[in-house]
Structure formats: C-alpha cells, structure tokens
Amino acid sequence: MATNQHKAGFVNIVGNPNVGKSTLSNILVGERLSIITSKAQTTRHRIMGIVNTDDYQIVFSDTPGVLTPKFKLQQSMLEYSTGALVDADVLLYVTDVVESPTKNQAFLDKVAREKVPIILVINKIDLLSGQDELVKIVEQWRALLPQAEIYPTSAKENFNVDQIKKRIVELLPVSPPYFGKDALTDRSARFFVTEIVREKILLTYDKEVPYATQVIVEKFTESDTEIHIMAVIYVERDTQKGIIIGKGGKKLKHVGMEARKDLEKFFDKHVYLQLYVKVESDWRNQEKKLKAFGYIE
C-alpha cells in the first residue's frame, strides 16, 4: 500500500452490559486491556486499544455497558457510551443471543440514526442449539438496524473475529496515524494496575460490595526488573471495609496475590503490591470524588 494510502480511524465498541464487549475488544487489540468477568457493569471507563501495522492504525474504544443510571458514577459511564457515537469512524454494536433486541431502545434509536458504517456483532452464538435460532435473531436485528452489517460471532471461541477485523480495515478512512506507531493504549500503567485489582475484587466478592469499590494507586516505583506499588481500595461503608479485608485479612491477601500474578504478566517484571482499604462515604454520588477518581473531567 502506498504511503499516502495509509488508513487510520476510531472504532468504538458499544452495547448493553454483559454481552462480551470487553472480550471482543481484547481479541481485536491482541492484548488484555479491558477486565473481563461474568458480572455486568465491569467496564467503567472508555479504554482505547491501538492496533498498528505499516498500512493502518485502528483505535478501538471499549465502553461501559449502556444502563439506566442510579448513581452519578453510572451517569458518567453512560456519557462515555453515548460520546462514543459522536466520534466514531466505524461503530461496533455488540449484542448477544440472550438479550432482547429492544433492550435500551432509546440508545438503539441513537445508533440507528448514525451515518457512519455500523457493524452489528451478535455474540455468544455458541449458546444456540441450531441454525434456525440464529436466522430468527439475525432477522430481528436486520429490522432494527437495516443499515448495519451483521456478523454472528463467538468471541469466547474466537469465531468470526478475524472477518470483523478484516472488514474494519476495509472501512477505515485514508488518514495518517493518530498516535505513534509503538502506542498500544492511551491509558497509563497506573490505570491498568487499578483495573487489574478491581477485576480481582469483582471475582472475589458478591452482591453490591465490588460495585462500591474504587482503586487508586498512591505509589508506583519502577526499575528495570521490578515494580513497587501501593494502592488503596475505597469503599462506601465500614461494613464493606470489613468484608473486603475478611477474617484475619485473608480476603484482601487473596485479592493481592491474584492481582500480583496478573500484574507480573502484564508488566513482565517482579511486582511488589501493598493494598489498603479506606472508607469514603457515598463516593459514587460525590462529584468531587468522581473528578478525583478520573470519571469526570
């Protein structure tokens, strides 16, 4: 491809919670940038993952699942998702074979009005028992988003993902790169520390407790061979603090051990991780705290 035909663009991934957006995003980027759990509302930020070749640069954005906000935090998450409709060169709308096609109709109506190319990914087709079920689901979505190109997919099984990526490259506009060719993401190392620790919290605790937590890195010291990290887990109530720590500190120790394993894989260095727990009452509704935690600019 000639130099002046270099392609670059923003591909924004949107959809409802728990349909597999982060799994798909990580496969497309080729790196584990977004945390993945079976719980809804795992992604809180808009996370960019950048794919570079000599001929193109794709800037993928994984966004929080669309939901009706109950807290100011969730309002901020929704703004990340709706904002992703504005600056996309290609829109990747992810659904699955389980959810109702008309869930969050208001957001879907906004997607239907978009003029940019839309790729509709119907994820989790490995859960279907036959082709007839898939045909029915495809027809439902074709009626709702007639301008979209539909790709039945299983991100978990890595089925049809390469075809999606190939089509994205075809749809990219001719443009110079937006970021340096060695860039992987727009996020800092500290950000990925908070996300990895938060993932382990989501996997370790039940009910409302993991959603009431926020992780902040207070110390990050790096050398050629090792990294020293001190991070604080914020919760909203004293009872939650007790649950996070666990009897004899066992639960917190487990979170730290699991997080350290993934951090060492992520950074390819020895990691020393210290975790503390603090109470910040009702932080999800405090604008000042949401700004301090990076949810509001």
Keywords:
alpha/beta; 6-stranded mixed sheet; globular; 9 strands
Give the strand content.
15-25%
Helix count? 9
Q: Helix fraction?
A: 25-40%
Main sheet summary: 6 strands, mixed
Strand order of the largest sheet: 2-3-1-4-5-6
Work out the number of β strands.
Answer: 9
What distance separates the N and C termini?
Answer: 39 Å
Give me the secondary-structure category: alpha/beta
Following the backbone from N to C, one meets helices and strands in this order, namely EHEEHEHEHEHHEEHHEH
- Compute the CA-based radius of gyration: 20 Å
Sum up the overall morphology in one term.
globular
Mean pLDDT, as a whole number? 85
What low-confidence regions span 5 or more consecutive residues with pLDDT below 50? Answer: 36-40
Q: What would your notes on this structure say?
A:
Helices cover 34% and strands 23% of the residues. It is an alpha/beta fold. About 2% of the residues have low confidence. The protein has a six-stranded mixed β-sheet, with helices on both faces. Strands 7-8-9 form a three-stranded mixed β-sheet.
